[in-house]
Amino acid sequence: MTTNTILLLLLSIVIAGGLSYSQYFFKVKNHSKVNVFLAFLRFLVIFALLVLLINPIMTKNKLEITKTPLAIAVDNSSSIVALQSDKKVNELYQKLISNSALQEKFEIQSYQFDADLKPSDQFDFKGKQTNLDAVAKNLKSINKNLIFPTVIITDGNQTTGNDYVYRFDPQNKIYPLVVGDTTTFFDLKINQLNVNKYAFHKNKFPVEVFLQYSGDKNTNADFAIMQGNTVVVREKVNFSNTKKTATLNVLLPADKVGLQIFKATISSNVKEKNSYNNSKNFAVEVIDQKSTIAIVSSINHPDIGALKRSIETNAQRKVILVKPNEISKLDDVAILVLYQPNTAFKGIFDNAKLASTNTFIITGTGTDFNFLNQQQNSLVFRMSGQKEDYLAEFQSQFNLFAIDNIGFENFPPLQNLFGTITTNTSVSVLLSSKIRNVATNSPLLAFAENQGKRTAFLLGENSWKWRLQSHIDNQSFEKYDVFVDKIIQYLASTTSKKSLVVTHENFYNSGEAIVINAQYFNKNYEFDDKARLTIKVTNTETKQVKNYDLLKGNNSFSVNLDGLTAGKYNFSVKELNTNTVYSSHFEILDFDIEKQFVNPDVKKLQQLALQTNGNTFFENQVDNLVQTLLENKEYKSIEKNISTKTPLIDWIWLLILIAALLTTEWFVRKYNGLL
Q1: Cα separation of 150 and 617, whole Å?
Q2: pLDDT (tens digit, 9 = 90+) per residue, 104-129?
Q3: Looking at residue 2, what is its pLDDT?
Q4: Terminal Cα-to-Cα distance of the chain (whole angstroms)
Q5: CA-CA distance, 125 to 82, in Å (whole number)?
Q6: Which of 6, 38, 470, 667 is at a distance of 20 to 30 A from 400, taking alpha carbons?
Q7: Which uninterrupted H or E stretch holds 631?
Q8: CA dist 188 to 46, 191, 210, 597, Å?
Q9: 294-492 has CATH 3.40.50 classification
Q10: Is the Transmembrane helix keyword given for this protein (predicted)?
């Protein structure tokens, strides 16, 4: 309490005593014990009221010391085991966290990382991917606005994510502690193999192979691609001390329809420490038909190029660009994309109706909406000549096909003419429109089906900005291109409606996410979120059976089958209430990316240390690392004086006490006839 508060309390005692004395003793001849007791009660009441007015505050000061964080991130991927460094990593980690001087100076934070970063002080080294980019991103958000050092115990071999060298905050020093044998061994490696998932029957498909050599002598290597026991391609490759890499481009024949498995190998007459990285399996699905999509437009617009690129990311699609008067027959066209149709499209609409060709209609400021009203009856347009920007709003109840919200609400607006758009009952809306966050209750992206003919409507131009925004948000066009592919897939499908629809790949690589999606529809073809879906997966070789439940998402069910070993599998998805079953198969190709390395990536880790003004240390230099951290004067503890103020007396109890004292005084006076 302050001096002023103490003086006020003393003054309160004097005032309370003076008033009590004045009422019960001043000019009163009878100084009985009752008067003394009543004076004491009155003194307490007045003093309590004055204390309530003064409200004395107690101030407590507490000294708090904030230490600088020291993040220790341990590589938990299986490459640590492959390099026979798992015991050494645990030993180095224990030596760091148990150091009393480090504990005194720093607040030690322990993490493990493989595909992602998470707090941990136990490591099993079973991670299937290494992502140092995730370490940079997560540590930056965990210790926001702080200057702190980071020790990374790793081999530096990243298998996924962005290049980590320039992803860490340059203000925070990184100290890589390199594990693994840095001795250079003779090693031949298939570093990367690029091939499309699909090829077309009776064509040839390209395979691009990147080979890498580690050693200091000239050597000759044999490269081959085999299908079963048949050698499809064989080439000689020469390496030397100055030529460490080679790139091969080969063409393979697609002479069989279906899933074709190949194996690429590189070998020499020298025995290698790691032969696992000498081979790589890959698969190609050979299909006997390529669907053609025609984009019809009488104008030039960036939307057309963006749409073409998105559609052709699926190798099964071929896009042709034509003018309205250039198409007379639609025999070879699977889907018509009609961009901003006007009266010049009359012949196209007539031919599409005769051929029952599915269409994707995209409108904009150049669309003739009166003409469009005459050509279809799914949507009715009443448009003005004024332009308007329309934002997208995702409709989670959409159920024609499984689709995720890829951030539509954050996409730039599409431009269309202002007006009202009404739909009939057979139209399903995936995206509705908003004008400056005010819902219009009109569709922006909708689908209709009439007598087996399917139509999609995108009601606005400038969708090329959507693709660009998706790339900015995800550093990839993939999510947006998959979204477009699902629209095209829906329009390309002519099969009758099924109650159980399952989406999956025919093959996966080991280490990839193996996700199977399913949708179950009731008799009205409405998505049934109360369905109970299970999946039974059987390894065709070992006959081992595993059962899983599919978990419900927004508008589909899904299951993650990560952890399955390489091999061929049959599976069946079953809806338990109706016993509806879908059966198929897939294959997991043997490939463990974490076993591709024979040495730590010292150069990359040294670049990282240099970029952040840190330093690189090796297994036998952990004491030097500790000394460096302790001697660095940038990392000082911060002392804070935390002052807390609390009332000396709880006012509620004080009021209760005052009421009790006044009540007691009244009863005593009443009893003694003083009222």
Answers
A1: 13
A2: 999 999 999 998 999 999 999 988 88
A3: 67
A4: 41
A5: 10
A6: 470
A7: helix 622-631
A8: 95, 9, 11, 11
A9: yes
A10: yes
DSSP tag of 595: G
Residue bearing the bigger pLDDT, 631 or 63: 631
Calculate the alpha carbon distances from 499 to 223, 448, 480 in Å.
48, 19, 27
Question: Is residue 31 predicted with pLDDT exceeding 70?
Answer: no
Asked whether the domain spanning 500-590 has the same topology as the one spanning 187-287, the reply is yes
- At the fourth CATH level, which superfamily is domain 500-590? Immunoglobulins (2.60.40.10)
Sign of the torsion angle spanned by Cα atoms 421, 422, 426, 430: positive
Give burial (CB, 10 Å; 0-12/13-18/19+) of 463.
Answer: buried
* Cα–Cα distance, 553 to 399 (Å, whole number): 12
Q: Is the pLDDT of residue 674 over 70?
A: no
Q: Which tokens sit at 383?
A: 């448009």
Which amino acid, 138? N
- Asked if pLDDT for residue 233 goes beyond 80, the answer is yes
> What are the pLDDT digits (tens) for 417-433?
999 999 877 899 999 99
Tell me the one-letter amino acid at 158. Q
Whole-model pTM: value is 0.58
DSSP assignment letter at 496: P
Cα 338 to Cα 117: distance, rounded to the nearest angstrom: 47
How many Cα atoms sit within 13 Å of 533 on the Cβ side?
28
**Residues 447, 355, 525: CA angle, nearest 5 degrees:** 35
Q: How far apart are CA 74 and CA 153, in angstroms?
A: 5
Give the C-alpha separation, 181 to 167, whole Å: 26
Task: Render pLDDT for 455-479 as a digit per residue (tens, 0 to 9).
Answer: 999 999 999 999 999 999 988 999 9
Non-local (6+) Cβ contacts of 531 within 8 A are 520, 557, 575, 577
Superfamily of domain 68-171+604-636: von Willebrand factor, type A domain (3.40.50.410)
Closest CA to 215 of 181, 252, 189, 253: 189
Fold annotation for 187-287: Immunoglobulin-like (2.60.40)
Least confident of 237-241, 376-380, 633-637: 633-637
Find, among 369, 366, 382, the residue nearest to 462 by Cα.
366
Cα 468 to the center of its chain, rounded Å: 18
Contact indicator for 299, 340 with CB cutoff of 8 Å:
yes
Cα radius of gyration rounded to whole Å, the chain: 38
Residue 515 sits at the vertex; the CA angle it makes with 510 and 517, to the nearest 5 degrees, is 155
Residue-wise DSSP of 56-125 = -EEEEEEEEEEPEEEEEEEE-BTHHHHTT-HHHHHHHHHHHHT-HHHHHHEEEEEEEESSSEEE-S----
What is d(CA 521, CA 425) in angstroms, rounded to the nearest whole number? 18
Question: Residue 85: which of 619, 617, 623, 620 has the closest Cα?
Answer: 619
Q: Is the pLDDT of residue 496 over 60?
A: no
Is the separation of the CB atoms in 512 and 528 below 8 Å? no
